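Incident log, support desk, overnight shift.

02:14 A customer reports that sequence design results differ from what the structure should imply. Their input is reproduced verbatim below. On-call engineer (initials T.W.) acknowledged and began investigating.
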């Protein structure tokens, strides 16, 4: 079995619990959603250039980088048969800290019992994405302190919905909660003011660091 890898590179992790640390990124082709603000839509196209690699080939390339943090991303990396094989292989190497970025629409339960399972960095899609109806709400019960739930907000309406989901699911107590802006769509200070207005203790506002270091459209960084 092979995986369609559209890019693989080492950079700093721009977001999540390992933000600012080096990580090897493995970006897999294809996504089952179509968010209004998608910044990797090029990787989701059927004709996107990709290299078919086996799980072992991906693992070997990761080890060559001598970087312990690994981020599996996309697209939607869980949206393919056989992804478990790759996750199990990576989980078997205790030196690696593996994170999988997932869009919230794929049931996480089948992956929850992988021994030393990867950390889930799960989006919860807000109204402006036009994809909220695709969310798999039961995932919010699976996430724990190994994981992150990320709300990408583009408006006050999005922030209202994020707050509602956070409170209703007691997410601050159970997992790590991040709010990020849709790049260029919302004043960053408005997010801070909103958090102050509602005393959003324990919620992390996070900027995608790589978009400030490099051109926001730059690939492979
Ligand atoms: S889930 Fe992510 S990769 Fe898929 S369309 Fe939305 S933003 Fe793009």
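02:41 Re-run completed on a clean worker. Output:
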């Amino acid at each position: 079995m092979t995986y369609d890898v559209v890019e693989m590179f080492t950079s700093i992790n721009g977001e999540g619990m390992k933000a600012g640390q080096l990580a090897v990124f493995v970006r897999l082709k294809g996504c089952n959603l179509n968010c209004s603000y998608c910044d990797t839509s090029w990787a989701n196209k059927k004709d996107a250039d990709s290299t078919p690699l086996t799980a072992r080939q991906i693992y070997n390339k990761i080890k060559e980088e001598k970087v312990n943090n690994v981020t599996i991303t996309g697209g939607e990396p869980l949206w393919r048969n056989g992804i478990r094989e790759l996750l199990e292989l990576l989980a078997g190497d205790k030196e690696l800290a593996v994170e999988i970025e997932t869009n919230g629409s794929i049931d996480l339960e089948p992956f929850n019992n992988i021994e030393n399972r990867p950390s889930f960095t799960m989006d919860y899609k807000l109204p402006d994405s036009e994809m909220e109806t695709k969310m798999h709400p039961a995932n919010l019960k699976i996430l724990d302190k190994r994981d992150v739930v990320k709300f990408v907000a583009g408006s006050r309406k999005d922030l209202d919905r994020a707050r509602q989901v956070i409170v209703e699911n007691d997410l601050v107590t159970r997992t790590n909660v991040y709010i990020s802006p849709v790049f260029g769509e919302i004043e960053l200070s408005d997010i801070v003011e909103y958090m102050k207005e509602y005393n959003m203790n324990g919620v992390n506002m996070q900027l995608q660091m790589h978009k400030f270091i490099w051109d926001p459209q730059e690939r492979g960084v």
